[in-house]
Design goal:
By secondary structure, the protein is α+β, with helices and mostly antiparallel strands. The protein is 39% helix and 11% strand. It has one domain. The chain is elongated. The model has no long low-confidence stretch (mean pLDDT 69).
Length: 56
């Protein structure tokens, strides 16, 4: 039996200083359908890097 833990319809909020984990965690959550959010200043950086994968 295949178990699937999807995040479609869920919002993921990364808080505090998560360091390098965001480079792997954010794409993983996006691939599972989550809506992600971070601090405004960091959001611009990650949005630019992941823009092709983020639906508006």
């Amino acid at each position: 039996m295949k178990v699937h833990y999807g995040f479609v319809g869920q919002i993921t909020l990364f808080t505090g200083d998560i360091g390098n984990i965001d480079s792997g965690a954010v794409p993983a959550f996006l691939e599972q359908g989550a809506t992600t959010s971070r601090s405004q200043s960091s959001l611009g950086k990650i949005t630019s890097a992941l823009n092709p994968r983020i639906s508006k």
